[in-house]
Amino acid sequence: xxxxxxxxxxxxxxxxxxxxxxxxxxxxxxxxxxxxxxxxxxxxxxxxxxxxxxxxxxxxxxxxxxxxxxxxxxxxxxxxxxxxxxxxxxxxxxxxxxxxxxxxxxxxxxxxxxxxxxxxxxxxxxxxxxxxxxxxxxxxxxxxxxxxxxxxxxxxxxxxxxxxxxxxxxxxxxxxxxxxxxxxxxxxxxxxxxxxxxxxxxxxxxxxxxxxxxxxxxxxxxxxxxxxxxxxxxxxxxxxxxxxxxxxxxxxxxxxxxxxxxxxxxxxxxxxxxxxxxxxxxxxxxxxxxxxxxxxxxxxxxxxxxxxxxxxxxxxxxxxxxxxxxxxxxxx
Length: 332
Known about the structure:
Elements: E1 6-11, H1 15-27, E2 31-37, H2 41-51, E3 55-57, H3 60-64, E4 71-74, H4 81-90, E5 94-98, H5 105-118, E6 122-125, H6 132-143, E7 149-159, H7 177-193, E8 199-206, E9 214-223, E10 227-234, E11 236-247, E12 250-254, E13 265-269, E14 272-276, H8 283-296, H9 305-324, E15 328-329
Parallel strand pairs: 1-2, 1-4, 2-3, 4-5, 5-6, 7-10
Antiparallel strand pairs: 7-11, 8-9, 8-15, 9-10, 11-12, 12-13, 13-14
Helix pairs in contact: 1-8, 4-5, 5-9, 7-9
């Protein structure tokens, strides 16, 4: 790999940026965070001081005008993803946008088109799938060790309902559990099955205390060959984040599927069971390295922007199903 480093700017000082993504980039061999921006100069200065970042801007426009910034990471509230991705692309910056990439597949398509027109790369920040254990899960599935896949079950729940000022509880800002954590099980099932779903059915409850966003959603996502993903996601329930891939001859269990320190998987078949452990690698660092590799070495993104559009189509269908209480077919 080239010794050149990708020069990152960060648009916003969201919790995910400060706790995970900036430290992850700084630990990488391929990237350096050279600028951070916030709508508050004080917040930008504080983040710059905390992480030793050279440049702090009191607005996003100034960072996008910085000619030394090669790529930007966007951790802004969901409703701002489209606007600032397009503005970053127009400024000639490559974009890593926090999940969900947009509020709809149509918005995602606009972003992909804008980035392609500007000649910049666009990726959605699903960090979990960059860790080698997901390639290993897919490898086991492809090998036939657990037989024919019959179904996948995944969960991602937490309880943050007392934090009434949280942006997750702003409906117009793209709040809700499906956008926030339900996108993970959907993404994981599509990754493992290497296929796109054909229909979705979902039910959820909303809370008037939280701007009527969905606080929990339970869903069935139908894939070809009669394989289903059953999932639940919540922001007002006991914490879980699990994954089970069920085959005709065995299963794979992942206790901490998306976040957590235990990165092992359990494989159970009629021949017995085993636990496979993996190195404690930072998925945020791996994500930054994969993005930089495509730019610095002329490769291609590990996960193309079309994947983000496809994931949003499933989320669109789940939201439509919740509203209509009907099964929604997903167009290819």
